[in-house]
Amino acid sequence: MPQEEDDHRAPTLAAPKYYAIGLAEKPNPPTNAGVRRLILATLFLGLLSRTSVAAVSETGATYDGTICVDATTGAVLSESKADWPGHPASVTKLMTMLLVLEDIQAGKTTLNAPITITKASVGTGGSMVWLAAGETFSADALLYALMLQSANDAAVALAIDRAGSAPAFVTRMNARAAELGMTRTHFVTPNGLTYGQGPHDTTSARDLAKLSVALCKMPAALKYTSAKTYTFRPGLKAVNLVNHNRLLTSFKGCDGLKTGWTVAANASMITTAREGDARVIAVVLGCDSPQGAKAAQRVRDQMAARLMTQGLARLALLEAEKAKLRALSARTAPVASASKAGPKGTKPAEESGFFDWLGGLFSF
């Protein structure tokens, strides 16, 4: 099947823009600039050891968009073409999981509720766990199949269970996307499996980050996305599932979220990793390589790992700045009190700028 071409693609991998504590967009700090750069360099070099992704050439590779955000606040740490349209492929399944888990939270169903497979779920194509009509599985088992095997038939089975039909569930997906502020997203499937000229599920890197922030606030979601293996349908017809996300084993602290690839969509990925109290989310949408699909998937993995490494370094630097500010405030508190009484004041003028700079780091 011929690969689709998108006129909006950049010819090469472009350097992302950095925000918050980035290198290109950071406002000039008022003091200790050299120390700050040294801290950033030290943190960055230390975090490089987090990952051991096998290198592949990125020459000639393209992508539809990337972004890295703070998982707690959603603040953007870096981005490149984050609002450009692309096709999410199996990353679409994250919205399917979100709706199922939200229904469970709302008491509309349970993880152990039996789901009977219908003919509409059978033989959907692509990656599957080969469901058969009349079989019964729990939502828990189907969610593992959805996240590890990227099972398209499991996605349809969950959609039918939660909305009566796949089209009705897709309507729910689009409504939830609108609630999350995913203004450039339109879903047409519960699994991301589309062919040829489409129609295709459409989204942007920024929209996928918004979806992922919501998911990362749900411990149940990370239980499925972090699982490396799972035995589906134990017995003679068992399917031993292995998570497609290689960064779970090669990137320290990575515990999600989802990979995706189709001929129409190319290679996409959303990953998340935690370092102490800090957590970042990285999105790579529509990565393609002249070396083929496997190379594109490797490039996608490299890009996601690099985004998380840089994002965690920036959050660590911010935490170091906050600690420094707390220490400075403790030392200068008596002086600040004295300045209120004195007509001229004793607080150095540059401290106000320092507070303003820190306060504006996550203002977007």
Helix content: 40-55%
Classify the fold: give the CATH topology.
Answer: Beta-lactamase
Order of helices and strands: EHEEHEEHHHHHEEHEEEHH
Biggest pleated-sheet summary: 6 strands, antiparallel
Low-pLDDT segments? 1-12, 18-35, 41-49, 336-342, 345-364
Radius of gyration: 23 Å
- Regarding CATH, which class? Alpha Beta
The CATH level-2 architecture is identified as: 3-Layer(aba) Sandwich
Number of helices: 10
CATH superfamily: DD-peptidase/beta-lactamase superfamily
Hey, roughly how much beta strand do the residues contain?
15-25%
Mean pLDDT: 84
Q: What is the β-strand count?
A: 10
Q: Main sheet: which strands, in order across?
A: 1-3-2-10-9-8
Q: Which class do the helix and strand fractions yield?
A: alpha+beta
What is the overall silhouette?
globular
Number of domains: 1
- Gap between N and C termini: 42 Å
Concise overview:
41% of the residues lie in helices and 15% in strands. The chain is α+β, with helices and mostly antiparallel strands and 364 residues long. The chain has a single domain (17-323), classed as Beta-lactamase.
Give a description of the structure.
It contains 10 helices and 10 strands. With 364 residues, it is α+β, with helices and mostly antiparallel strands. The N terminus and C terminus are likely disordered. A hairpin with a 2-residue loop joins strand 9 and strand 10. Helix 2 packs parallel to helix 4. The strands form 3 sheets. It has a 6-stranded antiparallel beta sheet, with helices on both faces. A two-stranded antiparallel ribbon has the order 4-5. The protein has one domain: DD-peptidase/beta-lactamase superfamily (Beta-lactamase, 3-Layer(aba) Sandwich).
